[in-house]
């Protein structure tokens, strides 16, 4: 059968996704095409013509994406820092805005040898694994209370270890339990946390509402229920000059920093905005 221009297949996919209300239709169309072809997105211009079977395969995934199945579920991975993790049903898809929190954490670790790092609410394990990749000398602990999320994290941890990264220590636990990681009290250089923080009842896009686990996204008390416990845990885990970074909702730019300021041991409390200028994460140091 006659080969067809890839460019036209991508244009058609973009049109369908735009019509379906997908936020970044061209980006998603290109990543789907790259996935089907098994090439990096940047190499798509080197593929002028494709078989009809490729156009069909792209079309099938585009139909799924138009139904607002997350792109990352269709291609099977999401990136954070210098790594990619496998994702799919039952686990939260790591988001680009979490890159900034990771960057802050890695900057804090500069000049510290063999740092101890804790990732609270690890989900797919993305933050913990990105730190372990960037800092092979770090001892990285990670915890989540959801069995399905932990199964994805275990899979990702095994895959990263097989690539030569230092293994992370994965635990099943609830961050609202005041005894979690008690053996690390006062020993931790860095606490990272992207917890559930969207206020219950908030309207979210179909990708989130129908595909991210509810308990990974939403929290009670206007979205700060889990964060309240993470702040308390950070205050006890950190060693002097250790630091904590916690992602939050864009409506929490005042409330979450205020929560950290109630802990006398935490100093230098600062809120940070994401790439769109919205309040996104808070940081503090242990005095
Ligand atoms: C927003 S997701 C973040 C996942 C990952 N850190 C990331 O950035 O991609 C929040 C995670 O917190 C977990 N979680 C929710 N409540 C928790 C709790 N009380 N204790 C431990 N983990 C919790 C969920 O299962 C979910 O995996």
TrEMBL record:
It comes from the Bacteria. Residues 113-201 form the Methyltransferase small domain. The keyword Transmembrane applies. S-adenosyl-L-methionine binds at residues 144, 194. It catalyses: L-glutaminyl-[peptide chain release factor] + S-adenosyl-L-methionine = N(5)-methyl-L-glutaminyl-[peptide chain release factor] + S-adenosyl-L-homocysteine + H(+). The chain crosses the membrane at residues 74-94. Residues 10-76 form the Release factor glutamine methyltransferase N-terminal domain. GO terms for biological process: methylation. GO terms for molecular function: nucleic acid binding; peptide chain release factor N(5)-glutamine methyltransferase activity. Substrate binds at residues 194-197. The keyword Methyltransferase applies. Its EC number is 2.1.1.297. Keywords: Membrane, Methyltransferase, S-adenosyl-L-methionine, Transferase, Transmembrane, Transmembrane helix. Methylates the class 1 translation termination release factors RF1/PrfA and RF2/PrfB on the glutamine residue of the universally conserved GGQ motif. HAMAP family: RF_methyltr_PrmC. Belongs to the protein N5-glutamine methyltransferase family. PrmC subfamily. This is Release factor glutamine methyltransferase. It comes from Prauserella cavernicola.
């Amino acid at each position: 059968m006659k080969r067809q221009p890839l460019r036209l297949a991508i244009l058609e996919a973009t049109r369908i996704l735009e019509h379906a209300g997908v936020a970044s239709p061209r980006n998603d169309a290109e990543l789907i095409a790259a996935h089907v072809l098994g090439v990096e997105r940047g190499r798509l211009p080197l593929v002028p013509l494709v078989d009809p079977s490729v156009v069909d395969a792209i079309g099938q995934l585009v139909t799924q994406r138009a139904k607002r199945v997350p792109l990352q579920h269709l291609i099977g991975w999401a990136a954070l820092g210098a790594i990619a993790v496998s994702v799919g049903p039952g686990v939260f898809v790591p988001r680009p805005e979490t890159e900034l929190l990771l960057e802050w954490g890695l900057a804090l670790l500069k000049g510290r040898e063999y740092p101890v790092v804790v990732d609270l609410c690890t989900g797919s394990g993305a933050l913990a694994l990105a730190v372990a990749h960037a800092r092979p000398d770090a001892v990285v602990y990670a915890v989540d209370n959801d069995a399905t999320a932990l199964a994805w994290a275990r899979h990702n941890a095994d895959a990263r270890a097989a690539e030569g990264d230092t293994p992370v220590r994965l635990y099943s636990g609830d961050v609202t339990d005041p005894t979690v990681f008690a053996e690390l009290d006062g020993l931790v250089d860095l606490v990272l946390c992207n917890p559930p923080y969207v206020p219950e009842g908030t309207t979210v896009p179909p990708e989130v509402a129908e595909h991210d686990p509810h308990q990974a996204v939403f929290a009670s008390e206007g979205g700060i229920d889990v964060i309240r416990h993470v702040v308390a845990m950070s205050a006890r885990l950190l060693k002097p000059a250790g630091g904590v970074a916690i992602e939050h909702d864009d409506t929490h730019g005042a409330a979450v920093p205020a929560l950290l300021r109630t802990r006398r041991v935490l100093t230098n409390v600062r809120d940070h905005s994401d790439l769109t200028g919205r309040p996104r994460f808070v940081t503090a140091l242990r005095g």
